[in-house]
Amino acid sequence: INSVAFIGLGAMGWRMAAHLPKAFADVRVWNRTFSKAQQHAAEFGTRAVSIEDAVQADIIFSCLPTSSEVETLIAEHLPKAGSIWVDCTSGEPTSAQYLNAHLQARDVAFLDAPVSGQTIGAEKGTLTVMVGGNANALLRARPAIEPFAGLIQHVGDSGSGFAVKAVNNMLLAVNLWAAAEGFSALKAHGVDMQGALACINASSGKSNATETVLPQRVFNRSFPNTFALNLLAKDAGIALDLVQRAKLPAPVLALTQSLIRAASDTSASDSDFSAAVKMLERWTNIELS
Ligand code: NDP
C-alpha cells in the first residue's frame, strides 16, 4: 500500500484519518467543506486533495452520513483498478451488495467496514471495525485499518458489516430507552438515582446505556453532541429493514425504531442520540437527573 485516502472528515472521520500518517507517508484527505480537509492537513500531516486525487489512492476510506452519499460519490468518481474502497459509514447492507458488484466489475474491491466506539474510540484508535466482503481484500486492506482499530472482525459477505452495525446500534437504542423508563420509575418512587446506578452497574441489568450514556450524558444534562440522534434513527431503520426482509416478528425492535424515529423528528437537528430520553421526560414529567 503506497497511498491511502480518507473521504469525509466529520466527527468520526476527522479522528480516524488522524491516525493514518503514523503508518503511511501518502495520506490524502477530502471533505465536502474543503476547509476542513486543509485544517486536517495542517494539524495531522495529511494532504488535502481533490476528490479526483482521493479516488486514485490504493485504499480509499469513506465515512459519510448514509449509503446514499457514498453511492453518489462512487457514481461520479470511479476509483482506479486494483484499489480497495473501505466504507466506514454505518450504511445499508443492500447498498454494500450493489456497490460491491458495481465496483468488482471494474476490478475494485468494496468492503463495508462500519465502526463502533464513538468519537472517543476514534480518537484513541480503538474502534471496533465489523467488516463484510471479500476476505482477501480485507487481508490486503488490514494494515490501513489497523491504525484506528482495536478489533477488526470479518463477519461475512458484502453487507454483513453494515448488518452487524445496525443491530448493534438498535441494541444501544433498546437499552437506552428501557433504562430511561426504568430509572423514571425509580425516581418516581424517590429512590436515590446515583445509588441505583451503582447497584445496577454491579448487577445483571447493566448495559452501555447504564454504564456510560446515563451517567455521562443524561444525568449530568450535558447531552454532548458526538453522535447525532438522526443517525441513530437511521441505524434503527436499517436494523428494522433487516428484520422485515427476513419476515421475522421483532416487536421490541419495531417499537424501538418508532420511538427513536419520533424522538429524532421532534428534536433539534443537532441533538445527541442521548437526547432521545427527553421525549420520555415530556411524557412523564420526570427529569432523569
Ligand atoms: P458527521 O455529521 O459528523 O459528518 C458527516 C461527514 O459527511 C462530514 O464530513 C460531511 O461533510 C460529510 N457529508 C455529508 N453529506 C455529504 C455529501 N452529500 N457529500 C459529501 N460529503 C458529505 O457524522 P459522523 O462522523 O458522526 O458519522 C459518520 C458515519 O459514521 C455515520 O454513518 C454514523 O452513523 C457513523 N458513526 C458515527 C459515530 C459517532 O459517534 N459519531 C460512531 C460510529 C459510527 P461536511 O463537513 O461538508 O458537512
Describe the structure.
Helices cover 52% and strands 14% of the residues. It is an alpha/beta fold and 289 residues long. It has two domains: 3-156, 3-Layer(aba) Sandwich (Rossmann fold), CATH 3.40.50.720; 163-284, N-(1-d-carboxylethyl)-l-norvaline Dehydrogenase, domain 2. α8 packs across α10 (208-218) and α11 packs antiparallel against α12. The longest helix is centred in the middle third of the chain and has 29 residues, at 160-188. Bound molecules: NADPH dihydro-nicotinamide-adenine-dinucleotide phosphate. NADPH dihydro-nicotinamide-adenine-dinucleotide phosphate (NDP) binds at residues 8-13, 31-33, 36, 63-65, 69, 89-90, 115-116, 118-119, 226-227, 231.
Tertiary shape: globular
Tell me the CATH superfamily of the largest domain: NAD(P)-binding Rossmann-like Domain
State mean pLDDT (0 to 100 scale).
Answer: 98
In spatial order, strands of the major sheet run 3-2-1-4-5-6
Number of strands: 9
Q: Please trace the helix and strand order, writing H or E for each element.
A: EHEHEHEHEHEEHEHEHHHHHH
CATH architecture of the largest domain: 3-Layer(aba) Sandwich
Q: Give the tally of structural domains.
A: 2
How helical, in percent, are the residues? 40-55%
Radius of gyration: 20 Å
- Could you name the ranges where pLDDT drops below 50 across 5 or more consecutive residues? none
Q: Mind telling me the CATH class of the largest domain?
A: Alpha Beta
Question: Roughly what fraction of the amino acids lie in strands?
Answer: 5-15%
Structural class: alpha/beta
CATH topology-level fold name of the largest domain: Rossmann fold
Distance between the termini: 50 Å
| Biggest sheet character | 6 strands, parallel
Query: What compounds sit in this structure?
Result: NADPH dihydro-nicotinamide-adenine-dinucleotide phosphate
Supply the number of helical segments.
Answer: 13
